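Let us work through a complete example step by step.
Step 1: write down the sequence.
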Amino acid sequence: MTLSLDEIVFRTRALAQAHPFSVRAQAYLTRTVAREREKQPAEEIGIWAGYAITVGYCLRRVEEVDAGEDGFVPPSDAASDLDVASDDVADRIRTDRADGLLLYDEPLVIQALDRIIAGEIDRRLSHGSDEIDSETFAALENYIAWWTLKGYALRVAEQIAPEPPGDVAR
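Step 2: predict the structure and record it as tokens.
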């Protein structure tokens, strides 16, 4: 590793301004944002999910470039569905069972995720935080945190989940 935490976060945010997704991940993002926009009480909350997925995904991409893929041990039992596989990866990260899936040391991944999540929360919630009750604010924080982790896990899942035969944009 050659990058500091600040450099990792900066590069992650810079990459998020580009078009960082593979065709498969872009199709997943498009479906997810459309679903969340319909499901959430305010349409922009679904859009926030898309931004959070993007920065989480980009964190993993920065990690790949900086750390290389030495030590990456893809599990052999990964589901081919990106949603299922990324849920499994996210669960492994949240429960300290991410051995072999991370390229940086786990504390650095967690620190970077925390910093990125805090930035996303600040961008999305700081301007109206006086008008949001504490329960709703906490729910929105958790929502943004989940989708950021899910974005990171999406990129890992994309690396470990076999592509379904035929349509890769499934």
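Step 3: interpret the result. The chain is about 65% helix and 0% strand.
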